[in-house]
Amino acid sequence: MTPLTSALSFHRTTICCLIVIIGLGSYPTRASQSSLRFDAPAEWLSTETTSQMRLSQFTLPKVDGDAEDAELVLFYFGGQGGTVEANLRRWTEQMLQPDGLSSTDVSTTTNFFVGELQVTVLDVPGTFSAAVHPGSRMRYHKSGFRLKAAVIETPVGPYFFKLIGPDRTVARWDTSFAMMLESLRFE
Questions:
Q1: Fewest CB within a 10 Å sphere: which of 89, 92, 105, 110?
Q2: Looking at the whole model, is its pTM more than 0.85?
Q3: Which domains, and CATH codes, for the chain?
């Protein structure tokens, strides 16, 4: 690796890394001059991200009787990632309905502003049926799940939160998820 490519690699890594300020409980999403920040509840367990596409990742502990925890992931694709509508459609299609209804018929979408940031939140119950990983033919099939997702429109492009888990566990964290969204700021 030449000194130039080493410096570029270091700079790219620095720009894309997540900084967690544990003492303040505030999570910036990038080590850059301007970034999306939010306050995560202390009960959410910050975990190591499992891919470079994930800026931060949390485990939301399960409620008694549920088989697994919920997962909340924050994505940022450098200002890319598609339109709000395209993402809402893709996420809705990751959920199947046991009675044959379209997931669009049972989903709810809410739009609001936090300061000058437009936020769009999607909520869809059903059977989680997304690809196990991008490009995979294998799909999850987890009934009794719920997907909550939010698109945050910022001056540097959209950020995407995706919360998925057993319905009762996700419902347990509804208020915390809403409070986290209300804490959003672009600094």
A1: 105
A2: no
A3: 43-186 (3.40.1000.10)
